[in-house]
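#struct-queue
[09:14] JT: dropping the first one here, sequence first, then the C-alpha coordinates:
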Amino acid sequence: MSDETQFEEFLKFQRGIIDEFRANAGKVGGMFEGSTLCLLTTRGARTGRPRTQPLGLMQIDGQDLVVASAAGAPTHPAWYHNIRKNAVVTVEAGARTYRAIASIPPREERDRLFSEIAAQQPGYGEYQAKTDRIIPVVALHPIDLDPDRVKHLGDELVELHGWLRGELTDLRRRIDDVVEGRADDIAPQAEGGNPLAELRSHCLDFCHALNVHHTGEDIGAFPVLRERFPALEPVLEKFAEEHKVVAELQNRIKELVEDFTPDQDDPVRLREEVADLANRLEAHFDDEERQLVTALNAMGPAPVRG
Protein backbone atom coordinates (compact mmCIF):
# COMPACT_ATOMS: atom_id res chain seq x y z
CA MET A 1 0.00 0.00 0.00
CA SER A 2 1.44 3.38 -1.02
CA ASP A 3 1.96 6.22 1.44
CA GLU A 4 -0.76 8.21 -0.31
CA THR A 5 -3.24 5.35 0.03
CA GLN A 6 -2.33 4.86 3.68
CA PHE A 7 -2.92 8.57 4.32
CA GLU A 8 -6.32 8.44 2.62
CA GLU A 9 -7.26 5.41 4.72
CA PHE A 10 -6.19 7.26 7.87
CA LEU A 11 -8.30 10.31 6.95
CA LYS A 12 -11.29 8.06 6.26
CA PHE A 13 -10.82 6.35 9.64
CA GLN A 14 -10.53 9.73 11.37
CA ARG A 15 -13.67 11.10 9.68
CA GLY A 16 -15.55 8.01 10.87
CA ILE A 17 -14.54 8.72 14.47
CA ILE A 18 -15.58 12.37 14.15
CA ASP A 19 -18.98 11.42 12.73
CA GLU A 20 -19.57 8.82 15.45
CA PHE A 21 -18.48 11.26 18.17
CA ARG A 22 -20.91 13.95 17.00
CA ALA A 23 -23.76 11.49 16.51
CA ASN A 24 -23.43 10.07 20.04
CA ALA A 25 -22.62 13.10 22.24
CA GLY A 26 -18.96 12.21 22.46
CA LYS A 27 -19.21 8.45 22.84
CA VAL A 28 -17.16 6.31 20.47
CA GLY A 29 -16.99 2.52 20.28
CA GLY A 30 -14.44 0.10 18.96
CA MET A 31 -10.84 0.63 20.04
CA PHE A 32 -11.83 3.91 21.74
CA GLU A 33 -14.74 2.54 23.76
CA GLY A 34 -14.52 3.78 27.34
CA SER A 35 -11.98 6.48 26.44
CA THR A 36 -12.61 10.16 26.97
CA LEU A 37 -12.16 11.90 23.64
CA CYS A 38 -12.58 15.43 22.35
CA LEU A 39 -12.63 16.97 18.91
CA LEU A 40 -10.08 19.76 18.55
CA THR A 41 -10.54 22.21 15.70
CA THR A 42 -7.54 24.35 14.84
CA ARG A 43 -6.66 26.67 11.95
CA GLY A 44 -4.07 25.38 9.49
CA ALA A 45 -0.72 27.10 10.05
CA ARG A 46 -0.27 27.64 6.32
CA THR A 47 -3.81 27.58 4.93
CA GLY A 48 -5.82 29.09 7.77
CA ARG A 49 -8.51 26.50 7.10
CA PRO A 50 -10.26 24.68 9.97
CA ARG A 51 -8.83 21.27 10.79
CA THR A 52 -10.60 18.87 13.18
CA GLN A 53 -9.05 15.82 14.79
CA PRO A 54 -10.12 13.48 17.60
CA LEU A 55 -7.79 13.44 20.59
CA GLY A 56 -7.70 11.89 24.02
CA LEU A 57 -8.91 14.42 26.59
CA MET A 58 -7.26 14.42 30.00
CA GLN A 59 -8.11 16.51 33.04
CA ILE A 60 -5.75 17.30 35.91
CA ASP A 61 -6.72 19.69 38.71
CA GLY A 62 -9.77 20.72 36.68
CA GLN A 63 -7.66 21.69 33.64
CA ASP A 64 -8.47 20.16 30.23
CA LEU A 65 -5.35 18.79 28.53
CA VAL A 66 -4.46 17.11 25.24
CA VAL A 67 -1.19 15.42 24.31
CA ALA A 68 0.65 15.85 20.99
CA SER A 69 1.76 12.23 20.97
CA ALA A 70 1.07 11.29 17.32
CA ALA A 71 1.38 7.71 18.62
CA GLY A 72 5.08 8.24 19.24
CA ALA A 73 5.92 9.49 15.74
CA PRO A 74 9.26 11.30 15.31
CA THR A 75 7.59 14.65 14.48
CA HIS A 76 4.90 16.71 16.16
CA PRO A 77 1.38 16.33 14.74
CA ALA A 78 0.04 19.03 12.41
CA TRP A 79 -2.46 20.32 14.96
CA TYR A 80 0.38 21.18 17.34
CA HIS A 81 2.06 23.34 14.67
CA ASN A 82 -1.33 24.95 14.07
CA ILE A 83 -1.75 26.09 17.69
CA ARG A 84 1.75 27.55 17.66
CA LYS A 85 0.56 29.77 14.81
CA ASN A 86 -2.97 30.44 16.11
CA ALA A 87 -3.72 29.50 19.70
CA VAL A 88 -7.52 29.97 19.49
CA VAL A 89 -9.25 26.60 19.06
CA THR A 90 -12.68 24.99 19.33
CA VAL A 91 -13.15 22.02 21.64
CA GLU A 92 -16.01 19.53 21.47
CA ALA A 93 -16.13 17.50 24.67
CA GLY A 94 -19.14 15.23 25.00
CA ALA A 95 -22.22 17.38 24.44
CA ARG A 96 -20.29 20.56 25.30
CA THR A 97 -18.60 22.80 22.74
CA TYR A 98 -16.43 25.74 23.73
CA ARG A 99 -13.80 28.09 22.33
CA ALA A 100 -10.46 27.95 24.07
CA ILE A 101 -6.94 29.27 23.90
CA ALA A 102 -4.29 26.55 23.78
CA SER A 103 -1.18 27.11 25.87
CA ILE A 104 2.11 25.23 26.03
CA PRO A 105 3.23 24.76 29.65
CA PRO A 106 6.90 25.41 30.47
CA ARG A 107 9.13 22.34 30.66
CA GLU A 108 8.96 21.77 34.42
CA GLU A 109 5.17 22.00 34.44
CA ARG A 110 4.97 19.86 31.29
CA ASP A 111 7.04 17.13 32.93
CA ARG A 112 4.78 17.09 35.99
CA LEU A 113 1.63 16.96 33.89
CA PHE A 114 2.97 14.28 31.56
CA SER A 115 3.97 12.13 34.53
CA GLU A 116 0.42 12.30 35.89
CA ILE A 117 -1.06 11.65 32.44
CA ALA A 118 1.15 8.60 31.90
CA ALA A 119 0.17 7.28 35.32
CA GLN A 120 -3.50 7.48 34.30
CA GLN A 121 -2.96 6.35 30.70
CA PRO A 122 0.26 4.28 30.38
CA GLY A 123 -0.01 4.34 26.58
CA TYR A 124 1.33 7.90 26.56
CA GLY A 125 4.44 6.76 28.39
CA GLU A 126 4.90 4.06 25.76
CA TYR A 127 4.60 6.67 23.01
CA GLN A 128 7.28 8.80 24.70
CA ALA A 129 9.59 5.78 24.87
CA LYS A 130 9.26 5.34 21.08
CA THR A 131 10.52 8.81 20.14
CA ASP A 132 13.44 11.12 20.90
CA ARG A 133 11.24 14.23 20.82
CA ILE A 134 9.68 15.54 24.01
CA ILE A 135 5.96 14.93 23.53
CA PRO A 136 4.15 18.20 24.29
CA VAL A 137 1.25 18.60 26.67
CA VAL A 138 -1.22 21.35 25.70
CA ALA A 139 -3.62 23.05 28.12
CA LEU A 140 -7.02 24.22 26.85
CA HIS A 141 -8.32 27.36 28.59
CA PRO A 142 -11.98 28.30 27.90
CA ILE A 143 -12.27 31.81 26.51
CA ASP A 144 -15.79 32.44 27.80
CA LEU A 145 -14.93 32.42 31.47
CA ASP A 146 -17.53 32.51 34.24
CA PRO A 147 -18.44 36.18 34.82
CA ASP A 148 -18.48 35.53 38.57
CA ARG A 149 -14.90 34.25 38.62
CA VAL A 150 -12.10 35.98 40.50
CA LYS A 151 -10.16 38.72 38.75
CA HIS A 152 -7.61 37.33 36.28
CA LEU A 153 -4.34 38.75 34.96
CA GLY A 154 -5.94 40.14 31.81
CA ASP A 155 -8.58 41.94 33.86
CA GLU A 156 -5.81 43.50 35.94
CA LEU A 157 -4.11 44.76 32.76
CA VAL A 158 -7.34 46.49 31.69
CA GLU A 159 -7.70 48.07 35.14
CA LEU A 160 -4.10 49.31 35.10
CA HIS A 161 -4.52 50.78 31.63
CA GLY A 162 -7.67 52.53 32.85
CA TRP A 163 -5.74 54.08 35.76
CA LEU A 164 -2.91 55.21 33.47
CA ARG A 165 -5.43 56.74 31.06
CA GLY A 166 -6.93 58.72 33.95
CA GLU A 167 -3.51 59.90 35.14
CA LEU A 168 -2.61 61.03 31.63
CA THR A 169 -5.88 62.97 31.35
CA ASP A 170 -5.08 64.69 34.65
CA LEU A 171 -1.57 65.49 33.42
CA ARG A 172 -2.96 67.14 30.29
CA ARG A 173 -5.42 69.17 32.39
CA ARG A 174 -2.62 70.38 34.64
CA ILE A 175 -0.58 71.45 31.62
CA ASP A 176 -3.56 73.43 30.27
CA ASP A 177 -4.08 75.10 33.65
CA VAL A 178 -0.44 76.14 33.95
CA VAL A 179 0.14 77.40 30.40
CA GLU A 180 -3.20 79.24 30.31
CA GLY A 181 -2.74 80.79 33.74
CA ARG A 182 -5.67 78.98 35.35
CA ALA A 183 -3.77 78.14 38.53
CA ASP A 184 -6.72 79.10 40.68
CA ASP A 185 -8.90 76.54 38.91
CA ILE A 186 -6.67 73.64 39.82
CA ALA A 187 -7.87 71.41 42.67
CA PRO A 188 -6.98 73.04 46.00
CA GLN A 189 -3.24 72.93 46.67
CA ALA A 190 -1.49 72.67 49.98
CA GLU A 191 -0.66 76.06 51.48
CA GLY A 192 2.16 77.59 49.53
CA GLY A 193 1.66 75.04 46.72
CA ASN A 194 3.10 75.89 43.31
CA PRO A 195 1.00 74.72 40.33
CA LEU A 196 4.08 74.38 38.10
CA ALA A 197 5.88 72.37 40.76
CA GLU A 198 2.76 70.22 41.12
CA LEU A 199 2.75 69.69 37.35
CA ARG A 200 6.39 68.62 37.36
CA SER A 201 5.78 66.24 40.26
CA HIS A 202 2.72 64.73 38.59
CA CYS A 203 4.60 64.33 35.30
CA LEU A 204 7.46 62.51 37.03
CA ASP A 205 5.05 60.25 38.92
CA PHE A 206 3.10 59.38 35.75
CA CYS A 207 6.24 58.69 33.71
CA HIS A 208 7.64 56.53 36.50
CA ALA A 209 4.42 54.51 36.78
CA LEU A 210 4.28 54.00 33.00
CA ASN A 211 7.93 52.96 32.91
CA VAL A 212 7.40 50.45 35.74
CA HIS A 213 4.39 49.02 33.89
CA HIS A 214 6.21 48.62 30.57
CA THR A 215 9.37 47.26 32.21
CA GLY A 216 7.23 44.71 34.06
CA GLU A 217 5.71 43.60 30.76
CA ASP A 218 9.10 43.40 29.02
CA ILE A 219 10.84 41.31 31.69
CA GLY A 220 7.87 39.56 33.30
CA ALA A 221 4.67 39.04 31.33
CA PHE A 222 6.04 38.98 27.77
CA PRO A 223 8.63 36.17 28.28
CA VAL A 224 5.95 33.98 29.89
CA LEU A 225 3.48 34.73 27.09
CA ARG A 226 6.14 33.92 24.48
CA GLU A 227 6.77 30.55 26.07
CA ARG A 228 3.15 29.55 26.50
CA PHE A 229 1.69 31.13 23.37
CA PRO A 230 4.27 31.08 20.55
CA ALA A 231 1.67 32.49 18.16
CA LEU A 232 1.90 35.80 20.05
CA GLU A 233 5.61 36.31 19.25
CA PRO A 234 5.08 38.88 16.43
CA VAL A 235 2.71 41.08 18.44
CA LEU A 236 4.89 40.87 21.55
CA GLU A 237 7.88 42.07 19.50
CA LYS A 238 5.73 44.93 18.19
CA PHE A 239 4.66 45.93 21.70
CA ALA A 240 8.26 45.82 22.96
CA GLU A 241 9.32 48.18 20.15
CA GLU A 242 6.42 50.50 20.99
CA HIS A 243 7.64 50.58 24.61
CA LYS A 244 10.98 52.00 23.36
CA VAL A 245 9.25 54.71 21.32
CA VAL A 246 7.05 55.66 24.28
CA ALA A 247 10.11 55.80 26.58
CA GLU A 248 11.85 58.25 24.23
CA LEU A 249 8.73 60.41 24.10
CA GLN A 250 8.43 60.32 27.89
CA ASN A 251 12.01 61.56 28.26
CA ARG A 252 11.35 64.49 25.92
CA ILE A 253 8.20 65.41 27.85
CA LYS A 254 9.99 65.23 31.21
CA GLU A 255 12.69 67.58 29.89
CA LEU A 256 10.10 70.00 28.53
CA VAL A 257 8.10 70.03 31.77
CA GLU A 258 11.19 70.34 33.94
CA ASP A 259 12.46 73.39 32.02
CA PHE A 260 9.08 74.90 31.18
CA THR A 261 8.41 78.56 32.04
CA PRO A 262 4.95 79.80 31.00
CA ASP A 263 6.14 83.33 30.26
CA GLN A 264 9.09 82.26 28.14
CA ASP A 265 8.35 78.89 26.52
CA ASP A 266 5.89 78.13 23.75
CA PRO A 267 3.17 75.89 25.25
CA VAL A 268 2.25 74.53 21.82
CA ARG A 269 5.22 72.16 21.65
CA LEU A 270 4.57 70.80 25.17
CA ARG A 271 0.92 70.22 24.42
CA GLU A 272 1.73 68.58 21.08
CA GLU A 273 4.27 66.22 22.66
CA VAL A 274 1.83 65.17 25.39
CA ALA A 275 -0.98 64.78 22.83
CA ASP A 276 1.34 62.56 20.76
CA LEU A 277 2.08 60.45 23.85
CA ALA A 278 -1.62 60.21 24.66
CA ASN A 279 -2.50 59.09 21.12
CA ARG A 280 0.29 56.53 21.01
CA LEU A 281 -0.62 55.14 24.42
CA GLU A 282 -4.32 54.91 23.63
CA ALA A 283 -3.59 52.92 20.47
CA HIS A 284 -1.02 50.80 22.31
CA PHE A 285 -3.34 50.05 25.23
CA ASP A 286 -6.23 49.19 22.90
CA ASP A 287 -4.02 46.85 20.86
CA GLU A 288 -2.60 45.14 23.96
CA GLU A 289 -6.06 44.59 25.38
CA ARG A 290 -7.32 43.17 22.08
CA GLN A 291 -4.32 40.85 21.62
CA LEU A 292 -3.29 39.86 25.16
CA VAL A 293 -6.19 39.92 27.63
CA THR A 294 -7.52 36.49 26.67
CA ALA A 295 -4.07 34.91 26.91
CA LEU A 296 -3.34 36.60 30.24
CA ASN A 297 -6.69 35.51 31.68
CA ALA A 298 -5.88 31.95 30.59
CA MET A 299 -2.72 32.06 32.71
CA GLY A 300 -4.62 32.37 35.96
CA PRO A 301 -5.92 34.75 38.63
CA ALA A 302 -4.30 38.05 39.42
CA PRO A 303 -2.27 38.17 42.63
CA VAL A 304 -4.11 39.41 45.70
CA ARG A 305 -2.79 42.83 46.68
CA GLY A 306 -2.30 43.29 50.38
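[09:21] JT: and here's the second one, same format:
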Amino acid sequence: MKGWTASDIPDQTGRTAVVTGANSGLGFVTARELARRGAQVVLACRSEARGAEAAQRIRAQAPGAYVRVAPLDLADLTSVRAFAAEHPGDRLDLLINNAGVMALPRRSTADGFEMQFGVNHLGHFALTGLLLPKLLEAGPGARVVSVSSFMHMLGTVDPRDLNMERGYRRWTAYSRSKSANLLFIHELSRRLRATNARLVAAAAHPGYASTNLQTAAPTMEGRRATKRFMEIGNRYFAQSPGQGALPTLYAATAPDVHQDDFFGPPLQGIWHGSPVRSARAKWTRSDTAARGLWAASERLTGVRYEALAH
Protein backbone atom coordinates (compact mmCIF):
# COMPACT_ATOMS: atom_id res chain seq x y z
CA MET A 1 0.00 0.00 0.00
CA LYS A 2 3.10 2.25 -0.08
CA GLY A 3 2.32 5.49 -1.89
CA TRP A 4 -1.33 4.50 -2.42
CA THR A 5 -3.54 7.32 -3.76
CA ALA A 6 -7.05 7.72 -5.10
CA SER A 7 -5.75 6.93 -8.58
CA ASP A 8 -5.10 3.37 -7.34
CA ILE A 9 -8.78 2.71 -6.61
CA PRO A 10 -9.84 -0.35 -8.65
CA ASP A 11 -12.62 -0.02 -11.19
CA GLN A 12 -15.96 0.22 -9.36
CA THR A 13 -18.25 -0.17 -12.37
CA GLY A 14 -21.38 -2.13 -11.50
CA ARG A 15 -21.08 -1.46 -7.79
CA THR A 16 -23.39 0.62 -5.62
CA ALA A 17 -22.21 2.54 -2.57
CA VAL A 18 -23.94 4.45 0.22
CA VAL A 19 -21.85 7.18 1.85
CA THR A 20 -23.28 8.89 4.92
CA GLY A 21 -22.48 12.55 5.41
CA ALA A 22 -21.47 12.85 1.76
CA ASN A 23 -22.25 16.54 1.31
CA SER A 24 -18.92 17.82 2.66
CA GLY A 25 -15.44 16.98 3.90
CA LEU A 26 -14.29 13.38 3.94
CA GLY A 27 -17.68 12.04 2.87
CA PHE A 28 -17.78 14.26 -0.20
CA VAL A 29 -14.30 13.17 -1.29
CA THR A 30 -15.12 9.51 -0.64
CA ALA A 31 -18.31 9.71 -2.70
CA ARG A 32 -16.63 11.64 -5.51
CA GLU A 33 -13.72 9.23 -5.87
CA LEU A 34 -15.95 6.14 -5.83
CA ALA A 35 -18.18 7.74 -8.47
CA ARG A 36 -15.14 8.76 -10.51
CA ARG A 37 -14.15 5.09 -10.67
CA GLY A 38 -17.60 4.01 -11.89
CA ALA A 39 -19.63 3.27 -8.76
CA GLN A 40 -23.23 4.37 -8.43
CA VAL A 41 -23.16 6.40 -5.24
CA VAL A 42 -26.00 7.34 -2.91
CA LEU A 43 -25.27 10.54 -0.99
CA ALA A 44 -26.97 9.96 2.35
CA CYS A 45 -27.31 13.46 3.81
CA ARG A 46 -29.31 15.10 6.57
CA SER A 47 -29.92 18.15 4.36
CA GLU A 48 -31.30 17.32 0.92
CA ALA A 49 -30.38 20.81 -0.28
CA ARG A 50 -26.73 20.43 0.69
CA GLY A 51 -26.77 16.92 -0.72
CA ALA A 52 -28.06 18.23 -4.04
CA GLU A 53 -25.30 20.86 -4.12
CA ALA A 54 -22.72 18.14 -3.42
CA ALA A 55 -24.12 15.95 -6.21
CA GLN A 56 -23.84 18.86 -8.63
CA ARG A 57 -20.21 19.45 -7.62
CA ILE A 58 -19.36 15.77 -8.02
CA ARG A 59 -20.86 15.69 -11.51
CA ALA A 60 -18.85 18.79 -12.41
CA GLN A 61 -15.58 17.36 -11.05
CA ALA A 62 -16.15 13.81 -12.31
CA PRO A 63 -18.05 13.98 -15.61
CA GLY A 64 -20.23 10.94 -16.18
CA ALA A 65 -20.49 10.17 -12.45
CA TYR A 66 -23.74 8.62 -11.25
CA VAL A 67 -24.82 10.04 -7.89
CA ARG A 68 -28.17 10.57 -6.26
CA VAL A 69 -29.26 12.06 -2.96
CA ALA A 70 -31.35 10.40 -0.27
CA PRO A 71 -32.31 12.01 3.06
CA LEU A 72 -30.83 10.45 6.18
CA ASP A 73 -30.77 11.90 9.68
CA LEU A 74 -28.71 9.61 11.89
CA ALA A 75 -30.02 11.44 14.96
CA ASP A 76 -33.50 10.08 14.27
CA LEU A 77 -34.08 6.33 14.04
CA THR A 78 -37.33 6.91 12.16
CA SER A 79 -35.28 8.59 9.42
CA VAL A 80 -32.78 5.71 9.45
CA ARG A 81 -35.58 3.18 8.98
CA ALA A 82 -37.15 5.25 6.20
CA PHE A 83 -33.83 5.48 4.36
CA ALA A 84 -33.26 1.71 4.57
CA ALA A 85 -36.79 0.99 3.34
CA GLU A 86 -36.69 3.48 0.45
CA HIS A 87 -35.38 1.13 -2.25
CA PRO A 88 -35.78 -2.45 -1.01
CA GLY A 89 -34.70 -4.09 -4.28
CA ASP A 90 -31.54 -2.10 -4.90
CA ARG A 91 -28.10 -3.68 -4.93
CA LEU A 92 -25.61 -2.52 -2.28
CA ASP A 93 -21.88 -3.32 -2.34
CA LEU A 94 -20.40 -0.64 -0.09
CA LEU A 95 -21.66 1.07 3.04
CA ILE A 96 -19.40 3.88 4.24
CA ASN A 97 -20.39 4.94 7.76
CA ASN A 98 -18.72 8.34 7.55
CA ALA A 99 -21.06 10.96 9.02
CA GLY A 100 -20.39 12.20 12.51
CA VAL A 101 -20.45 15.01 15.02
CA MET A 102 -17.59 16.11 17.27
CA ALA A 103 -17.29 17.73 20.71
CA LEU A 104 -20.80 19.17 20.75
CA PRO A 105 -22.38 20.76 23.79
CA ARG A 106 -24.78 18.39 25.49
CA ARG A 107 -27.57 17.53 23.03
CA SER A 108 -29.98 14.62 22.62
CA THR A 109 -31.16 12.79 19.51
CA ALA A 110 -34.81 12.49 18.56
CA ASP A 111 -34.84 9.19 20.45
CA GLY A 112 -33.28 10.63 23.61
CA PHE A 113 -29.68 9.41 23.22
CA GLU A 114 -26.62 11.56 23.88
CA MET A 115 -25.98 13.11 20.47
CA GLN A 116 -22.41 11.96 19.79
CA PHE A 117 -23.08 8.37 20.86
CA GLY A 118 -26.45 8.45 19.09
CA VAL A 119 -25.18 9.75 15.74
CA ASN A 120 -21.65 8.38 15.57
CA HIS A 121 -22.51 4.89 16.79
CA LEU A 122 -26.19 4.06 17.27
CA GLY A 123 -27.41 5.63 14.03
CA HIS A 124 -24.81 3.74 12.01
CA PHE A 125 -25.40 0.53 13.98
CA ALA A 126 -29.08 0.69 13.05
CA LEU A 127 -28.37 1.64 9.44
CA THR A 128 -25.91 -1.21 8.93
CA GLY A 129 -28.27 -3.73 10.45
CA LEU A 130 -31.18 -2.61 8.30
CA LEU A 131 -29.07 -2.70 5.12
CA LEU A 132 -27.29 -5.95 6.02
CA PRO A 133 -29.43 -8.26 3.83
CA LYS A 134 -28.51 -6.22 0.73
CA LEU A 135 -24.83 -6.24 1.66
CA LEU A 136 -24.82 -10.00 2.22
CA GLU A 137 -26.48 -10.57 -1.16
CA ALA A 138 -23.89 -8.48 -3.03
CA GLY A 139 -21.25 -11.20 -3.01
CA PRO A 140 -17.44 -10.97 -2.95
CA GLY A 141 -16.01 -7.51 -2.48
CA ALA A 142 -18.89 -6.14 -0.41
CA ARG A 143 -17.69 -3.98 2.46
CA VAL A 144 -18.84 -2.06 5.51
CA VAL A 145 -16.39 0.68 6.51
CA SER A 146 -16.81 2.77 9.65
CA VAL A 147 -14.85 5.99 10.06
CA SER A 148 -13.39 6.23 13.55
CA SER A 149 -10.69 8.59 14.88
CA PHE A 150 -7.31 8.39 16.58
CA MET A 151 -9.15 10.19 19.40
CA HIS A 152 -10.67 6.81 20.27
CA MET A 153 -7.49 6.29 22.30
CA LEU A 154 -8.77 8.80 24.88
CA GLY A 155 -12.03 7.15 25.85
CA THR A 156 -13.34 3.67 26.55
CA VAL A 157 -17.02 2.86 26.29
CA ASP A 158 -18.68 2.79 29.72
CA PRO A 159 -21.53 0.23 29.50
CA ARG A 160 -23.01 1.59 32.75
CA ASP A 161 -23.33 5.11 31.37
CA LEU A 162 -23.62 5.02 27.59
CA ASN A 163 -25.44 8.37 27.53
CA MET A 164 -22.98 10.06 29.94
CA GLU A 165 -25.71 10.92 32.41
CA ARG A 166 -23.20 10.93 35.27
CA GLY A 167 -21.41 13.97 33.94
CA TYR A 168 -21.05 15.13 30.37
CA ARG A 169 -17.63 15.96 28.93
CA ARG A 170 -17.73 16.71 25.23
CA TRP A 171 -14.33 15.33 24.24
CA THR A 172 -14.78 12.22 26.37
CA ALA A 173 -18.16 11.65 24.72
CA TYR A 174 -16.57 12.00 21.29
CA SER A 175 -13.72 9.63 22.12
CA ARG A 176 -16.12 7.05 23.49
CA SER A 177 -18.25 7.20 20.35
CA LYS A 178 -15.16 6.58 18.23
CA SER A 179 -14.19 3.62 20.42
CA ALA A 180 -17.74 2.37 19.90
CA ASN A 181 -17.17 2.48 16.12
CA LEU A 182 -14.21 0.13 16.47
CA LEU A 183 -15.95 -2.20 18.92
CA PHE A 184 -18.85 -2.40 16.46
CA ILE A 185 -16.57 -3.36 13.57
CA HIS A 186 -14.78 -5.89 15.79
CA GLU A 187 -18.00 -7.67 16.75
CA LEU A 188 -19.47 -7.40 13.25
CA SER A 189 -16.29 -8.99 11.86
CA ARG A 190 -16.52 -11.82 14.38
CA ARG A 191 -20.11 -12.54 13.43
CA LEU A 192 -19.34 -12.42 9.72
CA ARG A 193 -16.52 -14.94 10.19
CA ALA A 194 -18.78 -17.20 12.24
CA THR A 195 -21.34 -17.36 9.43
CA ASN A 196 -18.74 -17.60 6.61
CA ALA A 197 -20.14 -14.43 5.08
CA ARG A 198 -18.22 -12.84 2.21
CA LEU A 199 -18.97 -9.33 3.47
CA VAL A 200 -15.91 -7.65 5.03
CA ALA A 201 -16.12 -5.12 7.88
CA ALA A 202 -13.22 -2.70 8.36
CA ALA A 203 -12.53 0.72 9.83
CA ALA A 204 -10.46 3.78 9.04
CA HIS A 205 -9.45 7.12 10.51
CA PRO A 206 -8.37 10.28 8.68
CA GLY A 207 -5.74 11.55 11.10
CA TYR A 208 -5.97 15.32 11.42
CA ALA A 209 -7.89 16.39 8.33
CA SER A 210 -9.34 19.81 7.67
CA THR A 211 -13.14 19.51 7.72
CA ASN A 212 -16.07 21.42 9.19
CA LEU A 213 -16.17 19.02 12.16
CA GLN A 214 -13.63 21.14 14.02
CA THR A 215 -15.61 24.36 13.73
CA ALA A 216 -19.19 23.07 14.00
CA ALA A 217 -19.47 23.17 17.80
CA PRO A 218 -17.75 26.58 18.27
CA THR A 219 -20.01 28.02 15.57
CA MET A 220 -23.09 26.55 17.25
CA GLU A 221 -22.14 28.10 20.59
CA GLY A 222 -20.81 31.40 19.29
CA ARG A 223 -17.30 30.74 20.64
CA ARG A 224 -15.43 32.93 18.19
CA ALA A 225 -11.96 32.51 19.69
CA THR A 226 -12.23 28.72 19.67
CA LYS A 227 -13.54 28.74 16.12
CA ARG A 228 -10.63 30.91 15.01
CA PHE A 229 -8.16 28.61 16.78
CA MET A 230 -9.62 25.60 14.97
CA GLU A 231 -9.50 27.41 11.64
CA ILE A 232 -5.81 28.20 12.13
CA GLY A 233 -5.10 24.57 13.00
CA ASN A 234 -6.94 23.38 9.92
CA ARG A 235 -5.09 25.81 7.69
CA TYR A 236 -1.53 25.25 8.90
CA PHE A 237 -1.39 21.76 10.40
CA ALA A 238 -4.17 19.57 9.03
CA GLN A 239 -4.02 17.60 5.83
CA SER A 240 -6.61 18.09 3.10
CA PRO A 241 -9.91 16.20 3.00
CA GLY A 242 -8.53 14.47 -0.11
CA GLN A 243 -5.65 13.03 1.90
CA GLY A 244 -7.83 12.35 4.92
CA ALA A 245 -10.27 10.27 2.88
CA LEU A 246 -7.59 7.91 1.55
CA PRO A 247 -7.72 5.42 4.48
CA THR A 248 -11.49 5.11 4.03
CA LEU A 249 -11.15 4.63 0.29
CA TYR A 250 -8.43 2.03 0.83
CA ALA A 251 -10.57 0.11 3.33
CA ALA A 252 -13.49 0.24 0.90
CA THR A 253 -11.74 -0.82 -2.30
CA ALA A 254 -8.26 -2.31 -1.88
CA PRO A 255 -7.97 -6.09 -2.45
CA ASP A 256 -5.91 -6.87 0.68
CA VAL A 257 -8.47 -5.73 3.28
CA HIS A 258 -9.49 -8.27 5.93
CA GLN A 259 -12.05 -8.50 8.70
CA ASP A 260 -11.50 -5.95 11.48
CA ASP A 261 -8.67 -4.11 9.69
CA PHE A 262 -8.08 -0.50 10.72
CA PHE A 263 -6.37 1.97 8.39
CA GLY A 264 -5.05 5.48 8.85
CA PRO A 265 -2.24 7.78 7.75
CA PRO A 266 1.26 7.06 9.11
CA LEU A 267 2.51 8.99 12.12
CA GLN A 268 4.77 11.42 10.27
CA GLY A 269 4.55 14.97 11.57
CA ILE A 270 0.78 15.52 11.78
CA TRP A 271 -0.55 12.25 10.40
CA HIS A 272 0.26 12.91 6.75
CA GLY A 273 0.82 10.23 4.14
CA SER A 274 -0.69 7.25 2.34
CA PRO A 275 -2.80 4.70 4.25
CA VAL A 276 -1.22 2.08 6.50
CA ARG A 277 -2.64 -0.41 8.99
CA SER A 278 -3.10 1.69 12.08
CA ALA A 279 -2.50 1.09 15.77
CA ARG A 280 -5.59 0.95 17.97
CA ALA A 281 -6.38 0.72 21.65
CA LYS A 282 -6.45 -2.81 23.04
CA TRP A 283 -9.93 -2.39 24.43
CA THR A 284 -11.35 -2.02 20.93
CA ARG A 285 -10.49 -5.68 20.34
CA SER A 286 -12.14 -6.88 23.54
CA ASP A 287 -14.73 -9.55 22.74
CA THR A 288 -16.48 -8.95 26.06
CA ALA A 289 -16.76 -5.19 25.54
CA ALA A 290 -17.81 -5.59 21.91
CA ARG A 291 -20.54 -8.10 22.71
CA GLY A 292 -21.81 -5.96 25.58
CA LEU A 293 -22.02 -2.87 23.38
CA TRP A 294 -23.70 -4.89 20.61
CA ALA A 295 -26.40 -6.18 22.97
CA ALA A 296 -27.02 -2.68 24.31
CA SER A 297 -27.16 -1.26 20.78
CA GLU A 298 -29.74 -3.83 19.68
CA ARG A 299 -31.84 -3.00 22.74
CA LEU A 300 -31.61 0.76 22.28
CA THR A 301 -32.25 0.84 18.53
CA GLY A 302 -34.59 -2.12 18.21
CA VAL A 303 -32.51 -3.35 15.26
CA ARG A 304 -31.42 -6.99 15.36
CA TYR A 305 -28.93 -8.55 12.98
CA GLU A 306 -31.03 -11.65 12.40
CA ALA A 307 -28.94 -12.83 9.42
CA LEU A 308 -25.93 -13.12 11.73
CA ALA A 309 -27.70 -14.50 14.80
CA HIS A 310 -26.11 -17.53 16.38
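[09:30] RK: nice, looked through the second one.
[09:31] RK: The longest helix spans residues 170-194.
[09:31] JT: good to know. The chain has ten helices and eight strands.
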